[in-house]
Amino acid sequence: MKFREIYCDNCKKSLGMYNVKYYSERSITEIIRTIHSFHSRAGHHIKIRKKKSEQG
Description:
- With 56 residues, this protein is an alpha+beta fold.
- It has 2 helices and 3 strands; from the N terminus they run E-E-H-H-E.
- The relative contact order is 0.35.
């Protein structure tokens, strides 16, 4: 399975992983804007990384 991971460079942690089958790039951007807005407002650098699951 393929995932998109929302990662904060400043905090050095993953903020969430979302399956590409169910979440488009646009959906991920909306999630960042609504749920993880604190990181953006604080000036943190957020990346969207593509990852593959070890299981699938």
